[in-house]
Amino acid sequence: MSELHEKSVVELATALRARQVSSVELTQAFLERVTRHQRELNAFISITAEAALAEAAQADARLRSQDAGPLTGVPIAHKDIFCTRGQKTTCGSRMLANFVSPYDATVVARLRAAGVVMLGKTNMDEFAMGSSNETSFFGPVRNPWDRERVPGGSSGGSAVAVAARLVPAATATDTGGSIRQPAALCGVTGLKPTYGRVSRFGMIAFASSLDQGGLLTRSAGDAALLLGAIAGFDERDSTSVELPVPDYSAALEQPLKGLKIGVLKEFFDKGLDPAIDQLLRAALDVLRSQGAVIKEVSLPHLPLSVPTYYVVGPAECSSNLARFDGVRYGYRCDKPRDLLDLYQRSRGEGFGAEVKRRIMTGTYVLSAGYYDAFYLKAQRVRQLISNDFEHAFHDVDVVIGPTTPTAAFELGAKTSDPVTMYLNDIYTIGANLAGLPAISVPCGFAQGLPAGMQIIGPHFGEERLLNVAHRYQLETDWHRRTPAGFA
Amino acid sequence: MAWETVIGLEIHAQLSTQSKIFSGSSTAYGAPPNAQANLVDLAYPGVLPVLNAEAVRMAVKFGLAINARVTRRSIFARKNYFYPDLPKGYQISQYELPIICGGAVDIVLDDGTVKRIDVTRAHLEEDAGKSLHEGLAGSTGIDLNRAGTPLIEIVSEPAMRSAKEAVAYLKKIHTLVRYLQICDGNMQEGSFRCDANVSVRQRGAEKLGTRAEIKNLNSFRFVDKAINFEVARQIELLEGGGQVVQETRLYDADRGETRSMRSKEEANDYRYFPDPDLLPVEIDQLYIDTVAASLPELPDQKAQRLRKDYHLSVYDAGVLTASAELADYYEHVVRELGGDPGLAMSPKLVANTVMGELAGLLNRDGLEISASRVTAPALAGLLRRIADNTISGKIAKDVLEAMWDEDQQADAIIDARGWRQITDESAIEAAIDAVMAANPSQLAQYRSGKDKLFGFFVGQAMKATQGKANPARLNELLKKKLGG
Predict the structure, then answer these.
(1) Contact criterion met (CB < 8 Å) for A89 and B273
(2) How near does any CA of chain A get to the CA of B50, in Å?
(3) The pTM is what?
(4) What CATH number should be reported for the domain holding residue A100?
(5) What is the per-residue pLDDT across B91-125, written as a single tens digit (0 to 9) for each?
(6) Are residues A246 and A347 in the same domain?
(7) Is A14 inside a domain boundary?
(8) CATH class (in words) of the domain with range B425-482
């Protein structure tokens, strides 16, 4: 039997219910790893050991009294964008560095109710704005495959925690690729559900029409199990959708015979690293060998997704982040002279450069005289991109392409040029603009670094995505590879 | 030079829902600061708004009552600006697609003609909190109890031509929202307030003059005074060769003047955009029909019915229908009296008493009709005693006051004070005889042709009966006896 930290959520849950291991033992084992690697990787902003052990003891009591659910006693970590009652919730920002949330996000509450044990809060780009985890007020997260490289972002801490086997799984959020891109760069599985599938209540908003909570896991099977726990309508989030939650695990094994896969022409462009191109073609061969039919599809408006995203996202962000004003909670500047000074210095000192850049961009595109030219036009393009996808899904069941154009880049390589950084999300943004579910699964290594295959499905097509990813993972072992030093 | 005043009003009516428009907090007035502000009202990180269905129903009710179009798909938008009592840094309002479009109400002008005032739109939005500056040692306190209270903002066309018309329109809307039970209309507590857009132009000119917006007027009197002041200010400015600048002004009630608050240049760019946290509000015909079926009798309909059923004047019907409660009270009294066949108490006389003596007492004590110390059946009991000649109309006033002050029925007071009218001829004759005996010289003068002295004898005889003699009978008998 392998080490505890090498086990999947599914395996750990089974072991817990069979009483082969207690939740306290598991929690201690993972906490030990979290603590041991914290200095080296900086994956966590808070490690909540004391609360975790108390939750584990409760979980063990439930397990003893046969009152346990499928996830009871399993330790995980939450991205520090999810509000957690009585624990610091910083969103990676100085603005909230000392903010203790008085309530649980719906995702947190649902996992808590399922008996999941929270080990801590993972590091992230400030307010989820970034693609390298370098904008965090708490310092960058390092990629366990190469400590000089970025883990991707914004959910870099969650991706690294899972990749380095510090936790079996972690929650994350995805506004323009913030789950899938770090999943690809760290060699883990990252699921961004359909917009509206998972409640956004208690998830600190960046861009409300794009944000979606999801998961970073070691396998599609684990993602299926956890998605079942967090998905579903929430009366506190009007944009969550009132649809029944299927048993995602039940659909995993379905054969792929006859599955129609669309290969996204626009994704295999000159920006794509040839090594990743090769890995994708090999991955498609694996799926083809299982009976899937592969054809090329085109989404003509997809190349417009990055500029569209960088109008819509900042516009919403400029408004969403207005509440951080130094008045009621969060960072307040020292000795404000008057109201204007309070606003200017609290926000000026509390927010980092990338957040300020996006607030300014967003304020600009919503200003009188610019609204039509930028915001309205971006909304129209967004609709066209949505239509492209809808059209494609008339012909195919899922579309597949790379998750990122390149593997993990070096720390500091792109920090001086925001646009180059933004282009890292060129393949992931489309799914956010169209509100579609997408998953990134490890598909090999380019120059020794992990690469990801992205599978995008129609609205509420999570079952199919997880099924395709799972069948692929049955045939491959890329997702089982552990970075050196973390086995 | 002849100037014409042009006024448009933006009325903010707080909807009387139990909870706030986007959070579950109570909307009750007067709680300790921030006792009614939950995490959504405080705009904590991660919280989301959820629309209160009751607020939508109330807005639709209003729309139907003014014959407006109910928008089938309306959108909430964010109005972005920084202010400490605006916790999210934006107000959720409606911008391009408000829930109510068009509609109109009629007002009655002084000369009795009816003028139709068109409403441009009415939209749903949330109220802001309050900043408190007093007693905080130089600091500013924020009370968010009011933050998130649902409002309907009713925007009129620039259709009014005088402060009087503006007040009449404001009163009409005030009456309407209370009939609909969607707003308590309490202006002191700020549940009903308005901004006035005021401009002047030369009579006959087509183009509107530059307007000033006077903010937050919270009484009918202030609306009247502020507009009149502002009109005079603008005319004086223009006649002196100056120009009106577009700006927001405040009305200072203590000084009775308006003051500049901020100019157009200093105005915020609100950066409106659709709120991505809220779905469009979709309303179908079935919903509209259901709300329409729930509408009460509206003021205009009620006034028309009172005129028809009770032969009241336009004026009386208008006064009695100013509130549904007053009209109900009136009709209740009429109904009570109708139960006594043969009693001649006309609805007009009931109206006179309700609008006269009763209104006077309500006014004196600052009470609403619903808090009247004399109930409708009790008032009917009093009027019944006038009708059956138990008391005279003159004594009735004293009886009503006694009923008001002592919480007694009319009969109890009449009996206790011996105010029953004397109709017994022998008693009246005895009184007359005594008066004649006591005033022989006047009697002689009268009999020699000084008819004017008749009044003197009436007064003396009335005095002798402590005012209780039936006046008609007294007159009759006196005439006979004096004539010898």
Answers:
(1) no
(2) 6
(3) 0.91
(4) 3.90.1300.10
(5) 999 999 999 999 999 998 888 889 999 999 999 99
(6) no
(7) yes
(8) mainly alpha
